[in-house]
Description:
Keywords: Carbohydrate metabolism, Cytoplasm, Hydrolase, Magnesium, Metal-binding
Bound molecules: 1,6-di-O-phosphono-beta-D-fructofuranose, 1,6-di-O-phosphono-alpha-D-fructofuranose
Shape: globular
Strand order of the largest sheet: 2-1-3-4-5-6-7-8
Order of helices and strands: HHHEEEEEEEEEHEHEEHEEEH
Family: Belongs to the FBPase class 1 family.
CATH architecture of the largest domain: 2-Layer Sandwich
Binding site for Mg(2+) 2: 105, 108, 264
Strand content: 15-25%
Distance between the termini: 50 Å
Number of domains: 2
Radius of gyration: 19 Å
Number of strands: 15
Protein name: Fructose-1,6-bisphosphatase class 1
Main location: cytoplasm
CATH superfamily of the largest domain: Fructose-1,6-Bisphosphatase, subunit A, domain 1
Amino acid sequence: MILKQFLNAKRERGFDPDLLELVQTIADATIKISRQLRVAVLHGHVGATEETNVQGEVQKPLDVIADNVFVAACQTSAAVSFAVSEEQDNEIPVSATGKYAVIFDPLDGSSNLDVNVTVGSIVSVIPAKAASELLQPGRNQVFAAYAAYGPSTSLVLTFGDDVDFFSLNADEEYELADADVKIPSGNAEFSINTSRQNLWDKPVQDYIAASLAGEGVYAKRYNMRWVGSMVADIHRIMHRGGIFLYPNDAEIAKKGGRLRLLYEANPMGFLVEAAGGGASTGLVRILDIQPKELHQRVPVILGALDEVEAVERRYAEAK
Ligand code: FBP
Ligand code: AFP
C-alpha cells in the first residue's frame, strides 16, 4: 500500500481531509530532501555555511536547503497557519485561514552529513489558528513523523493512534513497510553520549552504571549505540527496543537541556508513546510540559517503557 492509499483509507474513516492533504505535502517535502541528500557531495553542499541559526549553531548548506523545502511546502497548503522551524528565529505566518501549525527540525543530526551517515527530518503538527496558540503541550499534537535518510529513506508517522513505517520505493513513492509498530521490550541496549558521563545527573549515572554491571532492567550486560543523530537512534529503538537519553547534565542545565522541545522531543515523544514506549525528562512526562518559548530545550529520555520507567524511578528515589 502506498501512502496515498493509506491516507485515503484514513479519509474514509473520518480523518480531517485537510490534515491528510498536509501529511502528503510533508511526505513529498521529505522526498525532495532525500533527493538533495543523494547528490549533496557532488553539488558541494557539505561543510558549513557562514551563517549561524537562532541556537547559535553553524548552519550546513543542507540545513538551509531542507528548511527552504519545508517552508515552501507549508506555503502551498491553505491548512497551515504557521510554520515553525529550528532554523528560523520566529514563526512564519502562512495562511490567515489555516488551522494547523507545522513545527519542524528540517535536518536533524546534520553533523553526520559530511561523513554520509544517517540524518533525518522531524515534524510535529498541532491545531493552532493564531500565533498565541503555538505554545501547546505535546499531547495536543494531531500528527508527528520523522524521515530517516539512511541506506533507504523511511517515513515513520502517527496520528496518535498507531505508528506506521513507510519506505521509499524505486518509483519514489512511500510504501507501507510495517503497520502498527510497537517498541519491543527486552533489548539490553542504551544510546547516550558517554563523553558527558561525568556531567550527567546522578540518577542517570547510577542507571547506566547498573546497566553496564548487568544489574539493569534486563539483568544482563548492556550494549551501547550512539549515532549522533536522534532520528537514527530512535529509528533503531523503534525496530529493536532499548533506550535513548540526552539527559540533563551539569553543563547544559542552564540551557534547560540539549534537544529542543517543540520540534525534537515532542514529535519523537508522541511517536514513541504511540508505539507503546515512554517519553520523559526523568522527572516529568515530556508531552505534559507547557512550553514557554519556541526554541525551548529539555532533557530527553525515550524508548522501551520499562527502561524509561527505571530511569524515572531513580530520579524519584534521588528526591
Ligand atoms: P541538531 O538539531 O543540531 O542536529 O542536534 C541534534 C542532535 O544531532 C541529535 O540528533 C543527536 O542525538 C545529538 O544532537 C547529538 O549530540 P552530540 O553532539 O552530543 O553527540
Ligand atoms: P559485522 O561484521 O557483524 O557487520 O560487525 C562489524 C561491526 O558492525 C562494525 O562495523 C562495528 O564497528 C562493530 O561491528 C560494532 O561492534 P559492537 O556491536 O561491539 O559495538
